[in-house]
Amino acid sequence: MVVGDIATGTDVLVIGAGPGGYVAAIRAGQLGLDVTLVEKDAYGGVCLNYGCIPSKAMITASDLAYAAGHAEEMGVYADPEVDLAEMVDWKDGVVDQLTGGVEKLCKAAGVNLMEGTAFFAGEHEARVVHGGEGQGSETVEFEHAIVATGSRPIEIPDFSFSDEQVLDSAQALDLREPPERLVVVGAGYIGMELSTVFARLGTEVTVVEMLDDVLPGFEADLARPVKRRAKDLGIDFYFGQAASEWWEEDDGIVVVTEDEDGELHEHPADKVLVAVGRQPVTDTLELDAVGLEPDDRGFLSTDDQARTAVEHVFAVGDVAGEPMLAHKGMMEGEIAAEVIAGEAVGLDYQTVPAAVFTDPELATVGMTEAEAEEAGFSPVVGRFPFAASGRALSMDEGEGFVRVVADDESGFVLGGQIVGPEASELVAEVTLAIEMGARLEDVVATVHTHPTLAEAVREAMANARGKAVHTLNR
Ligand SMILES: Cc1cc2nc3c(=O)[nH]c(=O)nc-3n(C[C@H](O)[C@H](O)[C@H](O)COP(=O)(O)OP(=O)(O)OC[C@H]3O[C@@H](n4cnc5c(N)ncnc54)[C@H](O)[C@@H]3O)c2cc1C
Q1: What spacing in Å lies between the alpha carbon of 98 and ligand 1's midpoint?
Q2: In this predicted model, what pLDDT tens digit does every residue of 191-218 receive, in sequence order?
Q3: In angstroms, what CA-CA distances link 179 with 167, 202, 203, 256?
Q4: N-to-C CA span, the chain
Q5: Rounded mean pLDDT of 106-113?
Q6: Cα(410)–Cα(412) distance, integer angstroms
Q7: Closest CA relative to residue 151, chosen from 307, 275, 267, 334
Q8: Ligand 1 contacts CB of residue 16 (under 6 A)
Q9: For residue 1, is pLDDT > 70?
Q10: Among 202, 255, 407, 415, whose Cα sits 20 to 30 Å from the Cα of 308?
């Protein structure tokens, strides 16, 4: 401790107020623990301020503009004018409402909010450096700590986010005028979501990706409709190419990529968005002071109770590893708080879904057929195409399908993969089925509202048993 410091004591010190940290803090407060939540930037973290919420707001607004201008088939003729600055102001309003809500919820749960940057100074001690000149720093002594410092975008050599023409996702979501030409480096979910936004706003988008397809990590038949629609929007794809350098010209910039044979390709643009992944923020925490060491990618390993190798230190959210998704972090945050309060809980990672908010949406949970086989099950698969869904067609969204994977013998639902309208919402039913240990027969016996997209989930489950009525059975 620094001479003259008065140390604050707390049961639970939470570092970082993103979805992992603020949820942990609120839950710990609800359980009667004394909690201090330290945040260096903005309540709500990346998710509320620069990630999930702003991107979904811009996806909705750009979709509205695009759909209104492309509905002649339905007898709707419109030529919407888009003011990106106003759209961004609206998005910022949504963000402000939510971040203000987080602060209120924390206060209502009795959480002590502290602005500043925290790092460990001992096994049960952290220093918090307050922002702003002359604000000083203080020591916080804690019984338990929850590390929730999240992640930052990965920079690639020669593409610095401090250059005006090189954007990370947060900067791209704040542009007040659409660039005429945009090169997007990386066809992962962030690259694909933002490419779609800008293509709908009239930007000429070029996507370059080192691997050979969009959305690496998802099955090819799920990614296919996403790539097809992106191409329909006018997005150009270059696979097997890595961005190597860029330079300015009189009328914009040139982004250079290198293919597998070492050949160079030039892509003219006005801006380049680099979306090649995110890395955990653990390098600023002085982890060795608390006895922790991150793995070689910077993540903190945890068990299913979010506990690190050090008994009284927990890690939640992006710092705790893949999947780097907000809902995984929130659930880990709740669990860490409950474990500290003495509850016997843990997270089943099979029930963590993933969603991509492209056009169409894509969502998965649990096991694929191949994973189920590998895990020793005899999987049975059911499928239902949205082309056979009355609701999907009445929304002009007949592309894609619901697929479910179950254990043939027991009928237990093991996984689901959906590409199509509202996939991000529909996956919740499959997730619930997995968590509850539901069988195919349970979902089939459940009456679903007509006409809804959710009927497609029931039909896929029925199809796995050869009992679907609205599609041909396998
Ligand atoms: C463009 C984009 C779109 C996304 N869309 C989705 C989506 O649709 N769905 C989804 O599930 N996920 C999405 N994500 C991912 C999601 O944002 C993250 O998984 C989530 O924010 C992780 O939460 P977290 O609490 O671990 O960390 P973060 O949200 O990163 O928050 C960490 C917080 O810790 C603070 N902090 C860091 N170090 C310190 C320190 N030393 N002291 C004090 N404070 C500190 C930071 O300022 C930050 O506020 C998206 C991400 C991006 C970038």
Answers
A1: 14
A2: 999 999 999 999 999 999 999 999 999 9
A3: 12, 9, 6, 18
A4: 70
A5: 98
A6: 5
A7: 275
A8: yes
A9: no
A10: 415
Task: Specify the pLDDT at position 131.
Answer: 80
Q: Would strands 166-167 and 271-274 be described as parallel, antiparallel, or unpaired?
A: parallel
Model confidence band, residue 4 (pLDDT cutoffs 50, 70, 90):
low
CA of 19 to the centre of ligand 1 (A): 7
Structure tokens at 405: 């994977």
Say which DSSP state 156 is in.
Answer: B
Is residue 450 annotated as part of the catalytic site, yes or no?
Answer: yes
Distance, CA of 168 to CA of 81 (rounded, Å): 26
Amino acid at site 94: V
Q: How far is the CA of 46 from the centre of ligand 1 (A)?
A: 4
* pLDDT, tens digit (0-9, with 9 covering 90-100), for 237-292: 999 999 999 999 999 999 999 999 999 999 999 999 999 999 999 999 999 999 99
Q: If you ran DSSP here, which 8-state letter would residue 337 be given?
A: H
Does ligand 1 lie within 6 Å of residue 54's CB atom?
no
What are the contacts of 41-45 at 24+ separation with CB within 8 A?
A: 42/17, 42/99, 43/17, 43/99, 43/102, 43/103, 43/106, 43/113, 44/17, 44/18, 44/19, 44/95, 44/98, 44/99, 44/102, 45/16, 45/17, 45/18, 45/19, 45/20, 45/21, 45/148, 45/150, 45/317
Q: How far, in Å, CA of 230 to CA of 469, rounded?
A: 32
Averaged confidence pLDDT in the chain: 97
Q: Beta strands 125-129 and 112-115: pairing type?
A: unpaired
Q: Ligand 1: distance of its center to the CA of 151 in Å?
A: 6
Whether the bond into 360 is cis, omega within 30 of 0: yes
- Contact between 16 and 148 (Cβ < 8 Å): yes
Q: Regarding predicted confidence, which is higher, 424 or 8? A: 424
Q: Are 185 and 243 in contact (CB under 8 A)?
A: yes
Nearest CA, atom 13, ligand 1: 52
Q: Atom 8 in ligand 1: which residue has the minimum CA distance?
A: 52
Cα angle 240, 243, 244 (rounded to 5 degrees) comes to 120
Please give the Cα distance from 68 to 432 (Å, whole number): 35
| Nearest-CA residue for atom 30 of ligand 1 | 150
46-77 pLDDT, tens digit per residue, is: 999 999 999 999 999 999 999 999 999 999 99
Supply the pLDDT for residue 143.
98
